[in-house]
Design goal:
Elements lengths: L4 H5 L17 H16 L6 H7 L14 H25 L5 H18 L1 H9 L6 H28 L6 E2 L2 E2 L1 H13 L1 H4 L2 H4 L3 H15 L19
Antiparallel strand pairs: 1-2
Helix pairs in contact: 2-3, 2-6, 4-5, 4-6, 4-7, 5-6, 5-7, 5-8, 5-11, 7-8
Keywords: DNA-binding
GO molecular function: DNA-binding transcription factor activity; transcription cis-regulatory region binding
Pfam family, one: TetR_C_24
């Protein structure tokens, strides 16, 4: 079973539209929204162009007025999701000073907020990108690497300043592994978070994950709390 189907199904944007229904949303946006929902619920490979166009109430040929193929549609929506995530992290860093603990708290909080508030988009971007062709995979892989390097640089600065404990194994710094562990923990939120069912606020989950990240490197969470912005980057 494709991971995330049952969880994401509970947060579908809308019931599938009939082709005859009127629509105010611009066609390209409607196609992207339907693709996000279907790719999250049943996966890229299983979803057909006909499924997407039926869900957004447009004729099948309308997709090709905006996207050259289903693969181009997938690349477009993942590219936009990754770009928004990178903007979120840049904004989070811009809202705090030079203190590594405050930076780590802000970045992890922003990353987690993106994965709680934009769950469907996050599931598709993190699970379906490997279906892209090689050049597009390289593009998305580069974006994912940049995100990881934001966290790695903060960890390195924190170690150098003595704010974070050394993360060593067999005499080696494991900064990359720690950064990946922190981000993977936050990424997983998209698969289970549901405020309506669980009673958690997105902000509370983001605070908790930011606290956990600080604790994992030996920093005091309370020193960094309250310095982060809740705003997501404009889509």
């Amino acid at each position: 079973m494709t991971r995330g189907i049952d969880v994401v199904r509970r947060t579908s944007r809308r019931p599938a539209a009939r082709p005859s229904e009127p629509r105010d949303t611009p066609p390209a946006e409607a196609i992207e929204a339907a693709a996000f929902d279907l790719f999250a619920r049943q996966g890229f490979q299983v979803t057909t162009v006909r499924d997407i166009m039926h869900a957004c109430g447009l004729t099948q040929g309308a997709l090709y007025n905006h996207f050259s193929s289903k693969e181009e549609l997938l690349a477009t929506i993942i590219r936009s999701t990754q770009a928004a995530l990178e903007r979120d992290l840049a904004a989070a860093l811009g809202g705090v000073g030079d203190d590594p603990a405050a930076q780590l708290f802000a970045v992890v909080r922003a990353y987690t907020l993106r994965h709680t508030r934009k769950r469907v988009e996050a599931v598709v971007a993190n699970r379906e990108w490997e279906w892209l062709d090689a050049p597009r995979r390289q593009e998305i892989r580069a974006s994912r690497r940049r995100v990881r390097e934001v966290v790695m640089r903060i960890l390195e600065r924190g170690h150098a300043a003595g704010a974070f404990r050394a993360l060593r194994r067999d005499g080696r710094d494991d900064v990359k592994i720690v950064a990946m562990a922190i981000l993977n923990q936050c990424t997983d939120v998209a698969y289970w978070f549901n405020a309506a069912h669980d009673g958690w606020r997105a902000e509370d989950v983001a605070d908790l994950h930011a606290d956990l990240a600080l604790r994992s490197v030996g920093a005091a969470p309370a020193a960094a709390r309250g310095r982060a912005d809740d705003t997501l980057a404009a889509e």
